[in-house]
Specification:
Keywords: Membrane, Transmembrane, Transmembrane helix. This is DUF4386 family protein. The protein is an all-alpha fold and 228 residues long. It contains eight helices and two strands. The relative contact order is 0.15.
């Protein structure tokens, strides 16, 4: 019968690890739904379009708008799950790292913004032919506000909540963490769209750049860390 050496237990303790939930699965589902939404809504009128143009588009492409609304709302679920998983992962890797709560709150707010945007778009698609163009424009504005600069601002907070502990705790490569902080700043600045329409060009920078950053982060963030 073999007896374990006294050093075996400490060595095993040093090799013990904590493992967080997978990240790539919800991230890739979110990406797939986002791409599908963009493809379906390629012909959506710009925020500067008249109410009559918006109403006409909704009447002519009501089914398409509803499918897009569904995809947008559906994409909110994996984004919220990603935020929860990232929060758990960061707690596992660096229990007291700053930004953990910001990541969770930002992710939930971003997912809520997508849900509201989809609901406003779906409501607009149900307008009758005798509806007011002003109502169609108002619903489109609400959909854009929540899914555009509103989402970008919340998503920026989400990214900052991950990038900051990733940088401080050396959980992410420095360039990746630094890029995340840049995206977070752009997300905050994009909220100026509510005051000056010219800042709207920053919204797709946050949406697409942030999505690519999220994929990289999900792939690079370690799942385990040894405990001494």
């Amino acid at each position: 019968m073999t007896t374990a050496s006294p050093q075996a237990a400490p060595a095993a303790s040093r090799r013990s690890v904590h493992q967080g939930p997978p990240l790539l699965v919800p991230v890739l589902v979110y990406v797939a739904l986002t791409i599908a939404y963009i493809a379906v809504n390629a012909s959506t009128p710009q925020p500067t379009a008249s109410g009559a143009d918006v109403l006409r588009h909704n009447l002519d492409h009501g089914g398409q708008v509803k499918v897009g609304a569904f995809l947008l709302i559906a994409s909110a679920t994996p984004l919220a799950v990603t935020a929860a998983f990232l929060y758990r992962r960061l707690r596992t890797l660096a229990v007291n790292a700053p930004g953990n709560a910001i990541a969770l709150a930002g992710g939930v707010l971003a997912a809520s913004a997508l849900t509201l945007s989809g609901m406003f778009a779906w409501t607009g698609a149900r307008l009758a032919s005798d509806a007011s163009p002003a109502l169609a424009r108002a619903l489109a504005d609400l959909s854009f506000a929540t899914g555009g600069p509103g989402f970008a601002l919340a998503f920026g907070l989400f990214v900052a909540g991950v990038a900051l502990p990733g940088l401080i705790g050396r959980l992410l490569p420095r360039p990746v963490a630094a890029l995340g902080l840049v995206i977070a700043v752009v997300g905050v600045v994009s909220s100026l769209t509510f005051a000056v329409y010219g800042f709207t060009y920053l919204v797709p920078v946050v949406r697409f750049g942030g999505t690519l950053w999220l994929i990289a982060t999900a792939a690079l963030l370690p799942r385990t860390r040894s405990r001494a």
